[in-house]
Structures are given as structure tokens and as C-alpha cells.
Amino acid sequence: MLALLGLLAVPHVQAGQRCEDTALTPATLQSAMSTAQRVTAELDRRGIQVAVLGRVGQDLSKYGLKYSHAGFVYRESPAAPWQIAHLLNTCGTSNSDLWYEGVGNFFLDDMFSYDALVIVPPPATAQALLARLPQGNVLRSMHDKDYSLVAYPFSTRYQNSNTWVLETLAAASARDATLGNREQAQAWLKMAGYQPSEMELGTFTRLGGRMFKANVAFNDHPNELRYAGRIRTVTVESIKRFLMSRNEGWTVFEIPARP
Predict the structure, then answer these.
(1) Which one of 11, 92, 135, 157 has the largest count of C-beta atoms within 10 Å of its C-beta?
(2) Is 227:219 a contact under the CB 8 Å cutoff?
(3) What is the pLDDT of residues 73-89, one digit of tens each?
(4) Residues 112/62, Cβ–Cβ less than 8 Å
(5) Which secondary structure element, helix H or strand E, spans residue 83, and what is its range?
(6) Are 56 and 67 a contacting pair, CB within 8 Å?
(7) Which residues touch 244 (CB under 8 Å, ≥6 apart)?
(8) pTM higher than 0.70, yes or no?
(9) How confident is the model at residue 17 (pLDDT cuts 50, 70, 90)?
């Protein structure tokens, strides 16, 4: 495995949330485990073996977005435990790594809410993902340790968590080419019509992010967009929109938080 998180520890990794040492409370643990149980029970009920799973790690409503971070939820056989494979940023740095962990851990990272989004691939893509996900060396072909929260989707200078998910999906979905690296995945995504989400950020926000946060960079964005404050990046919403537009049999459903 690439890495393993302890069940009762809050790790020094993040996917866009605050990077702080936070005591794990019984209420947080209960919410995370309850959400994991609801998610895996619904996957079992529907006979799903692999999917993209989105969580609400922070409030992005001012950008018209709900889900902030995605990973792959899967199990290698009906008797195997459920796992998450996703990319996380090392706190206080511009580096990232790939992590395998339990579904409960996926919902421990200071959630804004405990809603979950599930994007289910068509059979051919599901089989391709199940062949890739247990193989760390294959997953790393689409991984870049240089991290930026707002990485531009058509540049290989940085990568964020959702970019890695999208590029891995491209490699598993492509039927007309074999995609072995990020450059090839991005070329395929551009040809296939992928459109990132666009967020309008003021000058102060952009300069503040670059000066005070190691995990935020804007210098991979085209100048004409960056100087206008139009920041385009991969979001869970843009992944969902792209996959559903392809008419290949992808399905989407939400698992709401319990009141």
C-alpha cells in the first residue's frame, strides 16, 4: 500500500481544509463512521464495486460548488474490505502523496457536512479501474508530488486531489489510446471536451494565497486568465459534468447526511 492512516489519528495531510492539529472528538468519530456505514451499505445494496466518492470538506457555496474532494471507493472482491484511494496534500508544504485508507477515515477530515456523492462508472471503465487501483506503481503514473489547491487542469506543473482523480479516470476510460502519463491524459481530456470549473478570485485573494500558503500557486494558469482573476481548476462538479456528458452509462446519486 502507498500509505495507511491510523483510525483514531488526525493525520498531517489535507485536501483543502485548514491545516491544523485538531483533537479527534467522539462526535466527529461517530459522524465519520456513521457516514462510512451509510455509504458502504448503499454500495452493497446497489451491487457497486468501484466508484468515485465525493465529500464536503469545506463550504464552497460562494463558487456554486458543493463537493470539495473526491477519491475512489472500491473493493477487490465482494468479501474484501472497502478502501479509498485518493491524493492528499502534506500540511504546510507544496507536496502531495497517494493514500489508501478506510472509508471512515475519508470522512474524518473536519467535514463541513456529511453528505456524500457517488459517481458510478460503466462496466468497462469499472473493470479498468479495478485493475489499476490496487497497483501503486500504475496509480503513480498519473501522480505528481508538486501540489497546488487550484492547479490548472491543462498544465503538469502542479496537481490537486481532483486533478489526479480526473486523470486516472481518463486513463481508465480511454478506448482509443493508451494513456501512460499526465501529458497524455490531459491531451485526451482536452480532445474529449473536458471543461474545468472557473472561480473569480480578486487580486488580494490570489496574492495572499501565493504569499502565505505553500499549497496554493497560480503561476501555472494562463496569464490572460490569471491576471483577470479567472481561476480554472478541476472540481468534483466539473468531473461529474464531464462524465455525464459522455453518455457512456455513468450514474450519479447522493447519500445525504442524517439530520
Answers:
(1) 11
(2) no
(3) 999 998 999 999 999 99
(4) no
(5) strand 83-90
(6) yes
(7) 250, 252
(8) yes
(9) very low
